[in-house]
Amino acid sequence: MIKTKTLIAAIIPILVISVLFNSCNIDTSGVRVSTGKTSEILVVIEKDEWNSNIGNAIRDFFGQDQEMLNQPEPKYTLPNITPATLNDSKMFRSHRNLFIVDIKKDIDKPIMEIEKNFWAKPQLIIKITAPNESVWLEEFKKRKETFLAFYDKLERQRIINAFKKIENVSIRKEIMKDFNISMVVPKEFYIAIEKPGFMWIRKEAQSFSQGILIYYYDYTDTIAFNYNRIIEVRDSITKLYIPGSIDNSYMTTSKTIMPQFAPINFNGNYAVETRGLWETEGDFMGGPFISITSVDEKRMRVVTTEGYVYFPNNKKRDKLKQMESILHTLKFMD
């Protein structure tokens, strides 16, 4: 058997943080449904701190460009309010993602607090309290990657929960029949192509398209996780099955900007996440894609699931995040 769980332990460190949040004197008996736009973090911070190195650090990290999009878009948009506004107005307490900055000169060491579903559900509140700016920045630098992972996970799970309410059950049954896997696909998608070892699932709206690719092949060795191999297989599949709008055109991986690859823990198994740009050979279409390549150990096969977006001249971050969330519902059936 493939030692995928051992690989995870070696490659992806897991940081465990104790959770305590007792600084807010609020009645939590009536939990509301959280509010806020997709990929948005409400930063609670004094105005002078927002305009200082603290604000710069928050904007530079959470507001950094999302990887592999056709045009610059931030990972998170970052509206901000003051602590007094948060205390005076219940409206902002229901925001899904809150990040609170607190400088208290009378404390000796920094305090980090994390709370889920405190004022609303789903909700994640992260607060760093520090005696001064330099200590706050040091604490933020140490933990910011973990904070980002927490917010990403909550955003993904929120989308998954929404899609479960509008699931296309017939597609799920067809995927289970063909692939022995389970995946949540919303109602507006339909199966465009169904072949042995391959399925193309599409959503065609007036101004954009989204698509899901599922394909597998026999596992032989760890070359399946080689980055060149992942792209080689992808391009062979898309050339065969994903045509462009012009005769003899087809989808391929962009050669101008190389994809990004990262090992991830995918439902307890080792996998490789690929983010890149696709284009159409012989045509002018293109957009971003994300794929996850993992091994179904029981059936000794490599399984890749991919989501892509076509939304010309428009922002694509949120639509790609929807596709990413769908991919994360995949489960191998026993």
Number of extended strands: 17
Number of helices: 8
Distance between the termini: 16 Å
Mean pLDDT: 90
Explained architecture:
- The chain starts with a helix and ends with a strand.
- The longest helix is centred in the middle third of the chain and has 32 residues, at 133-164.
- 29% of the residues lie in helices and 30% in strands.
- The chain has helices at 4-11, 47-50, 53-62, 83-88, 133-164, 169-179, 227-241, 317-327; strands at 32-33, 42-44, 80-81, 97-103, 111-116, 120-121, 124-130, 181-182, 190-195, 198-204, 209-218, 250-253, 260-266, 269-281, 286-296, 301-310, 331-332.
- It has two domains: 19-163; 168-332, 3-Layer(aba) Sandwich (Protein Transport Mog1p, Chain A), CATH 3.40.1000.
- The chain has eight helices and 17 strands.
- The protein is an alpha+beta fold.
Considering the chains and any ligands shown, give keywords for the structure.
334 residues, alpha+beta, Protein Transport Mog1p, Chain A, eight-stranded antiparallel sheet, 30% strand, disordered N terminus
In short:
The chain has 334 residues and is an alpha+beta fold. Helix content is 29%, strand content 30%. It has eight helices and 17 strands.
What is the fold's blueprint, element by element?
Blueprint lengths: L3 H8 L20 E2 L8 E3 L2 H4 L2 H10 L17 E2 L1 H6 L8 E7 L7 E6 L3 E2 L2 E7 L2 H32 L4 H11 L1 E2 L7 E6 L2 E7 L4 E10 L8 H15 L8 E4 L6 E7 L2 E13 L4 E11 L4 E10 L6 H11 L3 E2 L2
Parallel strand pairs: 1-6, 2-3, 2-4, 4-7
Antiparallel strand pairs: 5-7, 8-17, 9-10, 10-11, 11-16, 12-14, 13-14, 14-15, 15-16
